[in-house]
Amino acid sequence: MSDSENFTFAARHIGPDDDAIATMLATIGVGSLEELAKKALPAGILDPLTEDQVAPGLDQLPPAATEDEALTELRALADANTVAVSMIGQGYFDTLTPPVLRRNILENPAWYTAYTPYQPEISQGRLEALLNFQTMVCDLTGLEVANASMLDEGTAAAEAMTLMHRAVRGSSNRLVVDVDVYRQTAAVLATRAQPLGIEIVTADLRQGLPEGEFFGVIAQSPGASGVITDWSEVVTQAHERGALVAIGADLLAMTLITPPGETGADVAFGSTQRFGVPMGFGGPHAGYLAVHAKHARQLPGRLVGVSLDADGAPAYRLALQTREQHIRRDKATSNICTAQVLLAVMAAMYASYHGADGLAAIARRVHGHARALAAGLVDGGVEVVHREFFDTVLVRVPGGAAQIRDAAKANGVNIWQVDDDHVSVSCDEATTAQHVEAVLSVFGAAPAATSGRGAAPAATSGRGVAAGSEFDGPAIATRTSEFLTHPAFTRYRTETEMMRYLRSLADKDIALDRSMIPLGSCTMKLNAAAEMEPITWPEFARQHPFAPASDTPGLRKLIADLETWLTAITGYDAVSLQPNAGSQGEYAGLLAIQAYHAERGQPDRDVCLIPSSAHGTNAASAALVGMRVVVVACRANGDVDLDDLRAKVNEHADRLSALMITYPSTHGVFEHDIADICAAVHDVGGQVYVDGANLNALVGLARPGRFGGDVSHLNLHKTFCIPHGGGGPGVGPVAVREHLAKFLPGHPLADELPDEYAVSAAPYGSASILPISWAYIRMMGADGLRAASLTAIASANYIARRLGEHYPVLYTGENGMVAHECILDLRVITKETGVTVDDVAKRLADYGFHAPTMSFPVAGTLMVEPTESESLAEVDAFCEAMIAIRGEIDAVAAGTWPTDDNPLRGAPHTAECLLVSDWDHPYTREQAAYPLGKAFRPKVWPPVRRIDGAYGDRNLMCSCPPVEAFA
Ligand SMILES: *Cc1c(COP(=O)(O)O)cnc(C)c1O
Fold first, then answer.
1. Residue 166 has pLDDT above 70, yes or no
2. Which domains are delineated in the chain?
3. Which portions of this protein are annotated as coiled-coil regions (predicted)?
4. What angle do CA 84, 257, 381 make, to 5 degrees?
């Protein structure tokens, strides 16, 4: 590498330099990275470099840009967008993110680089924040149990649908959906209902329930038209007829109006976007799902609960983990894995910062603006359709809707055209009296005489809307119950308190800003600051997903670039960025396969072959599209059992829809038979789904679209640097060959897309985080991307060599090589010594490290994925810790320490448990806290001791515990 090359972005992103790589290669026993690639990957799929020494496909990428150049290009793309005043509503509202939250959460790597809290002892900070989120949702919806976030409002509605279907267990497959739910919600419901045989009956529920049987009812409060309906009567009647009711509820409105739980509804769902999370052209933001206590065990997604640690102190961890799709596989009822943790944390902290009275004041102000708007319109002789509304005013303008919409646009305000005769105007936290005036002027109206400027009723008297003379609609403030009374929502109301609260929570966790996170299958690589910076620029962040296309040419160019680059990298022909997690990409991909078979007159093809080693989401996604999952065995070496595969392909030949196979495998190996496997499936008319979540081992080396895949999803939050955010956001693009392109996700509200197959609420899913992946590809260029893959593979093989002497490496490929991760097998150790994977994982925290992936895909093992971003020094320190732990295991085996009292079983050790005078364990306190000496690394003090998960599941508690619990 020349001097100038040291300043390329790739040299900053990739941890090991040339010398370090030489050291690694020597340990592995190969002469070069190229030789390593030839040994690790099957010759049949490894792409030879072009004449110009570039990886095929990647030659279509622009040459690598520096950070400064990429940011300049992104700035130009941002500048091409227009940030209009958005009064479109329809589920997306402008909001004012408190700067203390933007800076200390969204822009803070301690929060955004964390992983899903599977190791709860070093994740107490984000678990507490998520518990606040759950408590907030419960309080505002009036229901007892809420999960820790959904992907968006549309998919939350779909999960509500399947939850009710399951809970009722009746004979009916009919779901009644009110006409006044958001169109994107109805679209996602339609997509998800069809393969499950659920029939959706659309009805105007204000006129009563339709005839016939049905298992559930879905309505919205307020409705898409803005109207507030008291649903209690509908709930009572639905219950009498044996059906459940789910209400889509706007949480800001719920500070004023009677929440779903108090009307008897069984389920509430919706979005928390307007709690301080920018619209972001559609995402990401946290959806939510809340249920009555009796349905708690049916709730999909992750649920944070309170339990106790080994010293009896309250501690948080994910509750009811056995419900997760990883365990239930094809019996799963949901495939959600990555959710929206970072955005849920923001929404929860927004509620903490404003408190109950602050939120209600914002709600009253929003409502006041809407009333002022309605008053001005009525005074001006314009017809306002509903009298009961919160923030959205529906206006009747016979034949003139498009004209009014365009005139508002010319005045700098985007409003929503409902149909030829109606527009709706939504107020939000950012609305001002000037905005209201600007809209009124479009109708030739002016602020109503009595309303006065600002029109916001004084935010003083109780929770109700202050009596206003400006609009004679009824007072909507029907809520009488209290909410957000827990100290989590009263203590942090000043910036100083909030700043310190966020810092204290982050300090409890291990994120990438403290150590490597060697989680196999998760690809915890660098999320560079230059990649992250643009996502908060208002030109990207403050865009409504249904804004006129003319407002967002820069974003659309960015999306088109990314689609092109991803097709080049994967060898496919078309990509959709709509799915907002890997699971959703899987779902969209399988839908495309299904549609393709149906179009060819073979709708009966419904068998999906899935190797036993697959990620749990694979089987869950297949179940959700109504496929029959047939499991293919693996051989002793971890590879797919070719004989079993061929037998099952032949057995189901006429009914075979797809094979879902992860490549490289979830065992961290490049299977050499992949081309044969794909051919066998194609020979009988099946399609091949290559799960591309492990693409970090393939970019620039092999292309799934060329070695046999018909469709893949990628995880931009793994390979392409979107941070994991503690368990979301994510983007799970689905990439397909030409013949499947027309079945990619569409959206009813995006002119350029077909109407069908919406899998997310927004046309481009979590669009506002796409600049991260754009910047990564732009700055790495073809050579950087390929070098990253090779380095990731080298690093994993180096670890396999160094640790292989101490822990058996479970699976390797033909030449003894692993791919980008390796599985350390502890089963024999456990059998002989009693020391478990849990003990090792928890003990690593005492050494200052985050544990590898535990017991996935093989129980009793640890899967290590270093990624290319970790330096050799960091990788070596991890190896030293693991080797030292092996020494501790040997001491247990030798009887130096008893099986039930040793530093492994006692791990992790808090400062509190060591700072005692009556220490009576057979190991010393120094051994507990500083096993490799004080100079080894900065000490991480876990805030709690080992957590008893089962206790918490027996005593389920999923909202903030009383403060006395911590006394
Ligand atoms: C991470 C992962 C998934 C699921 O992706 P999410 O974004 O969490 O839904 C699927 N398959 C494999 C192999 C994975 O590693």
1. yes
2. 92-514 (3.40.640.10), 536-778 (3.40.640.10), 781-954 (3.90.1150.10)
3. none
4. 55
Average pLDDT, the chain: 95
Q: Are 688 and 710 in contact (CB under 8 A)?
A: yes
Instruction: Fill in the DSSP letter of residue 339.
Output: -
Name the residue of 521, 714, 858 to mutate for ligand 1: max ligand atoms within 8 A of Cβ: 521
Residues 6+ apart with CB under 8 A from 59: 50, 52, 782
Q: Is the pTM of this model over 0.90?
A: yes
Name the closest-CA residue to atom 8, ligand 1: 338
- Tens digits of residue pLDDT in 282-329: 999 999 999 999 999 889 999 999 999 999 999 999 998 755 655 577
pLDDT at 938 exceeding the cut of 80: yes
Which atom number of ligand 1 is nearest to the Cα of residue 336? 9
Q: What is the pLDDT of residues 430-479, one digit of tens each?
A: 999 999 999 999 999 999 875 444 444 443 333 333 334 457 778 899 99
Judge if the beta carbon of residue 337 lies within 6 A of ligand 1.
Answer: yes
Rounded Cα–Cα distance for residues 673 and 634 (Å)? 13
Q: How far is the CA of 708 from the centre of ligand 1 (A)?
A: 20
Cβ-based neighbours of 434, under 8 Å, separated by 6 or more: none
| Maximum pairwise Cα distance, the chain | 91
pLDDT at position 329, please?
Answer: 72
The 3-state DSSP class for residue 656 equals strand
Q: Is 908 in the pocket of ligand 1 (CB under 6 A)?
A: no
State the pLDDT at residue 326. 53
**What residues contact 394, with CB distance under 8 A and at least 6 apart?**
225, 226, 227, 384, 385, 386, 418, 422, 423, 424
Residues 221 and 260: beta-carbon distance below 8 Å: yes
Cα(136)–Cα(547) distance, rounded to whole angstroms? 30
Q: Whose CA is nearest to atom 3 of ligand 1?
A: 582
**In the chain, what is the straight-line distance between the N-terminal and C-terminal CA atoms, in Å?**
58
Nearest to 390 by CA among 346, 419, 360: 360
Alpha carbon of 693 to ligand 1 centroid (Å): 6
Cβ atoms of residues 801 and 816 within 8 Å: no
Nearest one of 543, 227, 179 to 370, comparing CA atoms: 227
Read off the pLDDT band of 6 (50, 70, 90).
low
The per-residue pLDDT for 616 is 87
What amino acid occupies position 714?
A: L
Give the whole-angstrom CA distance, residue 379 versus residue 447.
Answer: 8
| Ligand 1 probe mutation, 150, 159, 517, 583, most atoms within 8 A of CB | 583
Q: 964 alpha carbon to ligand 1 midpoint, in Å?
A: 39
Per residue in 591-634, pLDDT (tens digit) is 999 999 999 999 999 999 999 989 989 999 999 999 999 999 99
* Sequence-separated (6 or more) residues with CB below 8 Å from residue 408: 87, 414, 415, 423, 438, 439, 442
- Please indicate whether residue 615, judged by its CB atom, sits closer than 6 Å to ligand 1: yes
- DSSP conformational letter for 907: P
Pocket probe mutation, ligand 1, options 662, 715, 760, 823, max atoms within 8 Å of Cβ: 715
| Whether residue 222 has a cis bond before it, omega within 30° of 0 | yes
pLDDT reported for residue 489: 98
What percent of the chain has pLDDT above 70?
Answer: 96
User: What does the block give as tokens for 951?
Assistant: 């206790």
Residue 155 Cα to ligand 1 middle (Å): 17
In the chain, the amino acid numbered 102 is: R
**In angstroms, what is the span from residue 770 Cα to ligand 1's centroid?**
18
- Cβ of 576 less than 6 Å from ligand 1: no
Q: Is the CB of 270 under 6 A from ligand 1?
A: no
Token pair in block for residue 852: 């590898």
Regarding the beta carbon of 521 and ligand 1, being less than 6 Å apart is answered yes
CB of 269 within 8 A of CB of 290? yes
Nearest CA to ligand 1 atom 5: 582
Please tell me if the CB atom of residue 690 comes closer than 6 angstroms to any atom of ligand 1: no
